[in-house]
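Bit of a strange request maybe. I'm writing a small parser for structure token strings and I need a real example to test against, not something I typed by hand. Could someone generate the tokens for this chain?
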Amino acid sequence: MPTIDNIGQRILYETPSAAALLFVGAAGYIATGDRKVREQLEQPKTQLKHWRKMFLWAVPNMSVLVVGGTVAAIAAYTQTKNNLWLYGATTFGSIIPYTIFGMGKTNSYLSNSLKESGEADLKE
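Reply from user aminoacidic:
Good idea to test on real output. This should exercise your parser:
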């Protein structure tokens, strides 16, 4: 039976896994379910507007999951000294530089092309 002392520790150990599962679930939806919706839209501008709405939704939400999961994994490492937590934190944390540097150019190009066409609603 869990005691008060180890409940916090159990929460700490479960947080990185929960964040990773939520991230994978949301990313899976965006990659598969949302893609099917976008493919049904006929006009490329309409597809691009839909992508932008999803992108603007995903950036803050997914960032919270990545940062929270990474920090929790590092905290779990400090408690256990088990290197697997560091491997997980590094893998999970690498999503941010990949998004900024690997996908940043593509995302900026798509957003800017929509803005330049006058089709973007900047309040979305």
